[in-house]
Write a structure and sequence with these properties.
The chain has three domains: 156 residues, FAD/NAD(P)-binding domain (3-Layer(bba) Sandwich), CATH 3.50.50; 152 residues, Protoporphyrinogen oxidase, mitochondrial, domain 2 (Polyamine Oxidase, Chain A, domain 2, Alpha-Beta Complex), CATH 3.90.660; 95 residues, protoporphyrinogen ix oxidase, domain 3 (Orthogonal Bundle), CATH 1.10.3110.10. The chain is globular, with a radius of gyration of 23 Å. The strands form five sheets. Strands 8-7-16-17-18-15-19 form a seven-stranded mixed β-sheet. Strands 10-2-1-14-20 form a five-stranded parallel β-sheet. The longest helix has 16 residues. A hairpin with a 2-residue loop joins strand 12 and strand 13. Helix content is 34%, strand content 23%. Helix 1 packs parallel to helix 11. With 447 residues, it is an alpha/beta fold. The structure holds flavin-adenine dinucleotide. Flavin-adenine dinucleotide binds next to helix 1, strand 11, strand 15 and helix 18.
């Protein structure tokens, strides 16, 4: 069948699969989406409770050009809410208290959170030459940061940032896959600080942070509406069988088992779900996909009254060295005041994540820790959302795995990998994948 009329299936109706299917449909391709759950959205849910609007999963995101375009196409521009200025004020917990952090090397050099030897460690970076840097291939964030800024900067600054984005362990995450811009600057200039100064005009360091009135579920609902009857909920793909002309999908629905044939299939799934589908075709690739770790994270929504000390920032992050259940907290109403009834303060706490030591996090403990840090006069838990497999961890070697997936796609030209372990985890990255689809090749380049 020719490109224009080829039939395409997208497996998985998270934001990645839905936005990809929407773009394919816009290109005129007959597209069918299969989602195992009874609802679309995957990691995106919104709960309305006693006048609070709780975004479960993503609570805010950076507005990229592609995301902005998608929201415009879906007529959701009016629903976009720009985060208040508190967004630029971020804190890190260290030594029993929270410290405001400004991402300026000069200000960090004088920061009271760092000891004198920690401050001196920051200066290592400016002496690193590009030739020396190029001898280092991919390494962990911890190894990279220790070489450039010293151990204290790693533990107190970089580790909590990785906790905030990935709920991840900087001792295992790959610098190239998680902080690609930092690694690229180092490759070119040797010193990250010199690179930042040289590229200041070109780097987009202050993207607008947005939320959606009614919650991110509105984006899911709008995409769902566009796809109409082409989206099949409660329909799990149990098996994929590649053939010469395309792919056979074995489906499990409430009505029983079915088989459908497609010219192309996009697997917009978590890697472990993808691995199950690949097990009979390529056990080795299936095993590699299963090894991507997705740690458990709890999102705890709380109403807090901070009458004595009003918290004025986006939130605070907790370094792994503090050995707390709490990964960090975001003051939702400092960003989006309308997400709570007037006069009420809403926090999202995060608990769990990936750690460099044996660790049993507890929701109860995380709430106690939050209380001891901000000392609110009232703290009421509104909702606890458990994400048993929250966010994929891009360990050292992740780029190699993505390259082998590309090689795999060349061997099986009707099957493509999507999902946030391929595109990147932010909503912007997930949506970008769908928009970048190259209609000739039907696939996008590895990041
Ligand atoms: C707690 C948390 C907080 C986050 N915060 C932010 C944030 O503030 N900002 C931000 O930008 N990003 C954030 N993210 C990341 C972002 O939400 C995710 O990266 C994104 O939603 C993942 O989308 P996806 O489509 O790749 O995968 P998913 O949402 O996981 O969707 C995959 C879908 O595939 C379906 N599926 C699985 N197996 C099958 C099968 N066999 N057949 C059919 N369907 C199947 C699943 O049911 C699911 O619906 C957060 C994530 C979490 C968990």
């Amino acid at each position: 069948m020719g490109i224009a009329g080829e039939s395409v299936a997208v497996v998985g109706a998270g934001i990645g699969g839905l936005s990809l299917a929407y773009q394919l449909k816009k290109q005129g391709k007959p597209v069918t989406v299969f989602e195992a759950a009874a609802e679309a959205g995957g990691k995106i849910k919104t709960l309305h409770l006693d006048g609070f609007e709780l975004d479960l999963g993503p609570v805010s995101c950076a507005e990229t050009a592609t995301l902005k375009q998608l929201l415009a196409d879906l007529h959701l521009e009016q629903e976009v809410i720009a985060a208040k200025s508190a967004v630029s004020k971020r804190y890190i917990f260290s030594g029993g208290t929270i410290h405001a952090i400004e991402p300026s090397p000069l200000k960090l050099l004088m920061h009271p959170m760092l000891s004198w030897s920690g401050r001196l460690g920051l200066l290592r970076d400016v002496f690193i030459k590009p030739e020396a840097e190029q001898t280092h291939s991919d390494e962990t964030v911890a190894q990279f940061v220790r070489r450039h800024f010293g151990e204290e900067a790693h533990q107190k600054l970089f580790n909590p940032v990785l906790n905030g984005i990935y709920a991840g362990d900087s001792e295992a995450l790959s610098i190239s896959s998680t902080l690609a811009m930092v690694k690229t600057l180092a490759g070119t200039y040797g010193s990250v600080i010199k690179g930042l100064r040289a590229e200041k005009g070109k780097l987009n360091m202050s993207r607008k942070i947005i939320g959606i009135k009614g919650g991110f579920i509105r984006v899911v609902e709008a995409l769902q509406e566009e796809l109409g009857a082409d989206l099949h909920l409660a329909t799990a793909v149990k098996k994929i069988t590649p053939s010469e002309n395309g792919v056979k999908l074995s489906l499990h629905t409430n009505e029983g088992e079915q088989e459908r044939f497609f010219d192309k299939v996009y697997l917009a799934l978590p890697s472990y779900a993808c691995a199950d589908l690949l097990a009979d075709i390529d056990a080795q690739m299936a095993s590699a996909l299963k090894q991507i770790r997705y740690p458990k994270v709890w999102q705890i929504y709380c109403e807090a009254e901070t009458s004595d000390q009003v918290f004025d920032g986006f939130g605070f992050l907790v370094p792994a060295m503090e050995r707390k259940s709490l990964l960090g907290a975001i003051c939702i109403t400092n960003l989006f005041p309308d997400k709570a009834p007037a006069g009420k303060t809403l926090f999202a706490l995060f608990c769990g994540g990936d750690r460099p030591y044996a660790f049993e996090p507890s929701v109860e403990q995380a709430v106690k820790e939050f209380h001891s840090i901000l000392k609110p006069s009232l703290l009421k838990v509104l909702h606890v959302q458990e994400w048993s497999e929250a966010i994929p961890q891009f360990y050292v070697g992740h780029k190699k795995l993505l390259q082998s997936l590309k090689a795999w796609e060349a061997r099986y030209p009707a099957i493509f990998f999507a999902g946030n372990y391929v595109s990147g985890v932010s909503l912007g990255d997930c949506v970008e994948y769908g928009l970048k689809i190259n209609s000739e090749k039907g696939s996008v380049e590895v990041r």
